[in-house]
Amino acid sequence: MRDILHLLRWSRWYHWRTFINSIRQRRAGWFLLLLILSGAALFALLDVVIVGSITAALNNQRLTSEMAISNPQALLDQLPALLLLANLLLLVFINAGLLIGELFFSSELERLFLAPITPRAVLFAQLLNPLTSNYTALFYLALLPLWAYGFVLGYGLGFMLLALLVVIVLPLPAIISSAFVLLLVIRVVPLRRLREAIGVLGSLMGIGCYVLSQVAITPTTAKLAQGWDVSSLAALTPAWLPTTWAGTGLRAFQQGGWAWLALLAFVGISLAAFGGGTLLFERVYFERWQAWQSSANTRRRKQRTAGSSTKNWHQWGSQTQALLRKDARLLRRDVRQFVQMLWPLAFLGIYVWRMLTDNDMRVASGPLLIGVILLVCVSFSSRLSLNSISREGQTFWILRTAPISTTRLVLSKFLLAWLVYPLLGGIMIALTLALGLSTLSFSVILWVILMITGAGCTALYIGLGAAFPVLTWDKPERQISRPAGCLGGVLLWLFLGGVVVLWGLMLAPNLPRLMGQPAPLHYGIQWQISAGLGAVLLTAIVSWISLMFGISRLQRLEDL
Amino acid sequence: MTPLIQAHTLTRVFDQQVAVDQVSFAVNPGEVFGFLGPNGAGKTTTIKMLIGLIRPTHGAAFIGGYDIQRDPIKAKALLGYVPDQPQLPEKLTAREYLQYIAGLYRIEPAVAAERGEELLRLFDLAERADDYIGGFSHGMRQKTAVSGALIHTPKALFLDEPTVGLDPRSARLMKDVLRQLAQRGAAVMLTTHILEIAERLCDRVAIINRGRLIAVGSLEELRHGGDASLEDIFLQLTGGSEYADITAMLE
Fold it and tell me: Which of A157, A545, B84, B92 has the most CB atoms within 10 Å of its CB?
């Protein structure tokens, strides 16, 4: 036990020092810290305001009847239980990802095994390591909302303290559940694959929420118009769930009676589950875990045979080809890289689905088509361009020592990211044509505009990505540096704003005719030509400046 | 004879701290040149300046007569580099990695194919040539990196601690390959902490300490007619002999 506490204490100290040192070493470190603290405070405030508002709204009879919400009291009663259940499920998922890192891939493990500490203590300490992030998450997602709920309903200090107790206990069953889930899954799935899969699942959760929100808009609006019985939400908390005991216990404490003792049952069962589960986990898995650790360095995992043969060599020769082929292979094979493409894919899926089903979309005029297709392509291409150099990571030394100029390197990366526009954009334009949403002449013009504007967007992102690369990332999500991300966001919209206005001026008098409708706007052809040339010129200037900026900064990059 | 590797008063200052100070030396074709020094002496910084990974604050580095800063493409076409901890693309197979490097160095596909297979066989990687590098041990990664550095038959080869993590057989193979490469007219420059390797393999050695070059020459030249080992010379020059006294006292 002493070893476990010792390890936990030093682990916290290590992470704290790492954080403080990283702040101190940065030129704008303290400003960054201030920014983080301000963000955290703002998030806390938003958290309290949102939950407080929902609670107040549900508690307001006039408001709920105006909004045609029936049975608001049922939801109000079950709100703490719902909140706790959602947090528990989230923690089980998050902890599975954290534990796989702590138990198997932590760089600390080797050092810990060399220290005069029993390996069992290392196992327990690693098992408990996710608690810090759990409590940070729960502070925002459970404690503050519960306090806001209690505050709005006028509950006293006892409720606040019991809420704190529940939040302290909640991660314990979550951690042990995650550990057992992990134990079962790694029997059939290789660890590295599992780590990648958890990353993908995390992204899928986000994408799923987005897709659901898009797909569910129409039916939800219709349902709300007819009135909404929110007691169906309360049904998500069946009485047999310990989180329901905690939730109802919290509320019962304020209302008097003995029902609040259910909360103590939750605390008891959570502690028992954690204690018993941890011991069981240690009994079942310690030997295998230790064996895995000792063989980790000499492990020879048979990887999937790529099936390449000598004849593949003939496809090679040019540097650009070599770079393109390598990037394409890595993007396809590295699930963590590929997962970054899922957002644009979801966006694309929604767009196509709407194009096929939404009547408003079908009758939408040209500008909307240009906008949507451009946005889909930009979001796809940005996943390849802003992090184009960063993707090389610590293997960037290969390119730096190879006889390839920085200009050629940046242009090769540009080509890969820009290919999205002719390929994906081409398919989407062909689809609009096939669906009768556009005429042939308009489709051709649209394609040309897309190619030119796409070149500008890609050059802007490639330039910023090359100017501010991150070569020491540990997760692909961290490949985009703050300057590249912030500047990219602002400059892209400024460029798009300017160029879209110019393209719009060029097309406006002709657009209805191209789309087979009468023209409402009339002005001289010279203005249209000027606007078109202006758009091309703006794109050329933005592309040139961006690429030159990226190339010159990348050339100066050193000390790898 | 034009040296293949030449450092001319190379100096590098990091935040007012001089990491490398006025270092000059030359490595001729057919020579294996050992670059020795205690930890933090400036070995890696010097190599990185020579191959163009970092810019010198002062001075210049030449590969095959080309200034690495002014004529980087021509200079880099002649050099090969193997870092001490080679970071390679994890999701490429060893064969694909060599294809990739061959593409970067513009090698004819047929030549690259033949040479790639030859290197894979030479370094015992042929059987696992279609496995991802991510599943390789440190030694196998090292051998893959060396294969990549050799695929374009470099004129100047730089290796940072080339034998670290290699089993005795692979270490021996590495030494033989480096020697063969030098016999074919290449210049090989390596850093190592294993003085025995330097003693056996290198034609000449340079010793750097606190950023300054304190000795350059063949072993005979450094001995000044005596019979001291390279270890003795190294410790004497770098101040490490004090540690020998302390060890003797502890005993």
Answer: B92
